[in-house]
Structures are given as structure tokens and as C-alpha cells.
Amino acid sequence: MQDIEKLIIIGSGPAGWTAAIYAARANLNPICYIGVPRQNPAPVLPGGQLMLTTEVENYPGFPEGITGPEMMQQFQKQAERFGTRIVGQDIQSCNFSTHPFELTTSKGDVAKAHAVIIATGATANWIGLENELRLATTGGGVSACAVCDGALPVFRDQHLAVVGGGDTAMEESAFLAKFASKVTIIHRRDQLRASKIMQKHTLDLPNVEVAWNKTVVDVIGDEKIEAVLLKDTVTGDESSLEVKGLFVAIGHTPATDFLEGAGIDFDDKGYVSLLTRNSQTNIEGVFAAGDVADQEYRQAVTAAGMGCQAAMDAERWLTEKGFG
Q1: In 200-220, which positions are buried (b, 16+ CB within 10 angstroms) versus exposed (e)?
Q2: What fold characterizes domain 126-248?
Q3: Which among 51, 93, 249, 310 could bridge 279 via Cys, Cβ 3.0 to 4.6 Å?
Q4: What is the CATH architecture of 4-123+252-320?
């Protein structure tokens, strides 16, 4: 008879590893399915968005900073220390209509569990340019998170660019304006999608301007970004804008494809919906944590906190049901 796990964790970013640490220390003997590397079109790696972050300065406990991959390696070691079992496969589909739950892996295996924590995160939407992705993964001055990276010394007192036209782009631009000498918002239309109040707050800043009707068609620079090549969406003319940083703020996509048909509720932007004040989804025994259920903050520290909550909620639920 196939073994039934107490808890399976899907995902290996800050939320997944923190959930694994707490669950393992609670003697739940969790299995963590960490996924496999792939291009989508940007790199998607086990460990989540932090695997594309070259320097993390705002996570407590690292006064000198740490790279994202190093941090995730430390998280994994800590989870393994307490007995977390790791499987390098994706979960391709879930059957939550039966209990124990059934999870089908990328190799076609079926794993069964009494409780599941979904911690698959969300991937940044990129423009999709070769040089953009290359410089984003090598610390060359391209980022998808101004709050994460904008205060780094390399960006201070520099001319920076933000791609986007929604509220996120306005928030990112206003944040960067605190440190940059100038921020240019690059938008493909002649008006922004952002709310009027967000537009006013950002565009009233003295060092923020908008490049209207422009798209980025290339990112110029070898080891570090030097400029972006712009194309006018009306005339087709191309021009170069010298910048020392490019922040892509065109949204995120939660990693939830594998949940199609599983009965999980999502919010209006496709993130997993949670019940009030805890990590429980609409399906009893299925929990979620981190960026897959958080469209607002998307920070490593908030994801880790949600992973802690999910593990504690799962432990309590398993105990109540007699599975703990």
C-alpha cells in the first residue's frame, strides 16, 4: 500500500523552505517538491525569484547583505538539517477532491498526502529581450523589484528607468525617486493605466518624467547596463536613453498552472485566495504561502512569515483530524 505523507510542500522559495523548517521541527516529516529549472521565457529556478537576485540587503540577520542564491542555499540546509526530504520534480496536477490528496509529479508518479502547502511563488513578467534577461541574472542593473534592489549603492544618484504604466510602476518609480538623480517611466501609450491618485503622487515628483509612446527594444551594455534602445510606437523611430538601471514593472504571474481543475479559489488577478487571518485555502487541508497568494508585498521576509503560518496551520489541522 502506498505511503501517505502527513504533509507535502510544493515550492522551494522563502515560503516553502520556512514551511519545511517549521513542519520538520514539528515532526511532520515533510516532503518538499522543489521543481526543476526551465525557461519561461526568463529563467525559472528552484528557489524562486531570489535565485535571480544578486544582492539582498533588506532581509534581517544579514548586515553585510547576501546573494539570493546563497540565502536560498542556507534555507535549504536548515530545512534538511531537521529532516525535510527533497524531491527535484514539479507537481504537474493535483486532485483535491479525494482525501488523502493526490499529486501527480512531472515523472508521472502519484504522491498522496493528508495536507498540502502550496508555495510555488510568482514569476516577474519580463519584456523578453535577450540582453534584459542576461543582465537581470548577472547583476547587471536590470531588476523586476525596485523595493528589493533600488536602494543598492549602484543605483544611488543615477538615472534610472522604469517600464510600465500601472500602479506598480508608479509605486516603483516613486520609491526609486528617493535615491535616483532622475527616473524615466517608459510607457508604450500616451496615457497611464495607473489610478489618478498614484499618477499624481508620482508624476509630481521633481525628478520623475515619462517617455510616452515608447517601448524598450534592446538593453545596451556588456557587464552593466549603459542605455536602453527605445522605439516610438507612433512613428517607429528609435532612440537611445542612457540609464544605469532598468526596472521592469509590468506585473507578475503566480505559478498556479498545475492547480487548474483542482478546485482552488483564486482572486481577480489569479493568486490563490486565502481565508481570513490564516493560510487556509477554500479546500480544507490545503494551505498556501508566499507570493503565490500575495499580490501586494512579494518580499522574501513576508513570504517566509507566510511559510511559518502555513506550517503552523497545517500542524494544527493535522492534529485536529488525528493525522498529526
Answers
A1: ebbbeeeebebbbbbbbebbe
A2: FAD/NAD(P)-binding domain (3.50.50)
A3: 310
A4: 3-Layer(bba) Sandwich (3.50)
Alpha-carbon separation of residue 203 from 169, 198, 246 (angstroms): 11, 8, 18
Catalytic residue selected from 32, 90, 94, 149: 149
Residues of the chain with CATH 3.50.50.60: 4-123+252-320, 126-248
Cβ contact 258:266 at 8 Å: no
Catalytic residue, candidates 32, 94, 148, 308: 148
pLDDT tens string 276-287: 778 999 999 999
Q: What cell does 8 get?
A: 507535502
Is the distance from CB of 263 to CB of 272 less than 8 angstroms? Answer: no
Q: Is 148 a catalytic residue?
A: yes
CB 285 within 8 A of CB 317: yes
% pLDDT > 70, the chain: 98
Clarify whether 145 is annotated catalytic: yes
List 32, 145, 291, 294, catalytic entry: 145
Predicted TM-score (pTM) of this structure = 0.88
